[in-house]
Design brief:
Largest sheet: 8 strands, mixed
Number of strands: 12
Number of helices: 10
Shape: globular
Order of helices and strands: EEEHEEHEHHHEHEHEEHHHEE
Strand order of the largest sheet: 6-7-8-3-9-10-12-11
Length: 326
């Protein structure tokens, strides 16, 4: 497959300062730490992990909303971030985001038509008539009647608002959509409708997705490839079927055991991890997962494992990695 977007050694660090206007820096938050991944044309890469692991920060770096502290991004083979910024605005048209909160992502003072047309106005695409026609086309493509174009966001349900957000993201005909928890704020009955819409649009328009979620059941439905993130790093990366059938990292195995199964109660016995998520301002030495890992040994406390091949395209960052059942 052709690589549409590649990130190599990508890091994003934030300086943490004490209280007060002239407070000194007291630490560094490594929100994203040396992440490398590839999103292939026409495919969906899902990024999963607990809240606070760095998923959204990574997404914002890839969407060119944050400038990385280190590493580089290539889009369609062309350097985006490196020593210098190159053709920033042109590439941003090809990368758009769908945000988590459909209630907060839309300007309440703008009509639906104005919200969807805003990217066209910013990038000076077409004349007024062509933009109006494009709005009608986009509303129909996401299952909304164009007769609703003059209404305001508060007049729509959560699922309809997310459809508006998807229409806005499609306005510039992007090649990559970064969807940050796009259905987590929606009712379960509405989630499947939005997910199926996204899959239909992917088939019709040849879109690529970076799909961020903490819901592994949703990920299994959407993804071609899955990346598991823990404390700012990728700890496992594999084709979807391989990861769900034979996870190699203990963290991934614990996540998969937490998926509710019909007739099996809310969780599988032993699903809950021991301990707590470490403080990201003071991460553990060695493997960041070792304080909670049932396999931890001395080497785990001393040396950070590299992301290495388990089998084929299946990678894991564990000193004792082996593919096994969840």
């Amino acid at each position: 497959m052709t690589a549409l977007l590649e990130a190599q050694g990508l890091s994003k660090h934030f300086a943490i300062r004490g209280v007060g206007l002239f407070a000194k820096q007291i630490g560094t938050l490594r929100a994203v730490d040396e992440v490398s991944l590839t999103i292939e044309a026409g495919r969906c890469l899902a990024l999963v992990g607990e809240s606070g692991c760095g998923k959204t920060t990574l997404a914002r770096c890839l969407a060119l909303l944050h400038r990385p502290s280190a590493g580089c991004i290539r889009f369609d083979g062309e350097m985006v971030y490196g020593d210098n910024l190159n053709k920033y605005k042109a590439i941003r048209r090809d990368i758009q985001m769908v945000f988590q909160d459909p209630y907060g992502a839309l300007n309440p003072r703008m009509t639906v038509a104005a919200i969807i047309a805003e990217p066209l106005n910013i990038h000076s695409v077409g004349n007024r008539r062509e933009r109006a026609e494009r709005v009608v086309e986009l509303m129909e493509s996401v299952g909304l009647s164009p007769s609703l174009a003059d209404r305001y966001p508060h007049e729509f349900s959560g699922g309809q608002r997310q459809r508006i957000g998807i229409a806005r993201a499609l306005a510039l005909r992007p090649r990559l959509i970064i969807a940050d928890e796009p259905v987590s704020a929606l009712d379960v009955s509405v989630q499947s409708q939005v997910l199926n819409l996204m899959l239909d649009l992917q088939d019709d328009l040849g879109l690529s997705y970076l799909f961020i979620s903490h819901d592994l059941a949703v990920v299994e439905h959407m993804a071609d490839t899955v990346a598991v993130m823990y404390l700012g790093r990728i700890v496992e990366l594999a084709p979807r079927d391989d990861l769900f059938a034979s996870p190699a990292h203990p963290y991934t195995q614990a996540l998969l055991r937490s998926i509710p199964r019909p007739g099996g109660g809310k969780r599988t016995p032993g699903a809950l991890l021991g301990g707590e998520v470490p403080n990201p301002l003071d991460p553990p030495s060695g493997c960041p997962f070792h304080p909670r890992c049932p396999r931890a040994a001395d080497i785990c406390r001393e040396a950070r494992p590299a992301l290495e091949t388990v089998a084929g395209d299946h990678l894991a960052a564990c000193h004792f990695k082996e593919a096994g059942s969840p």
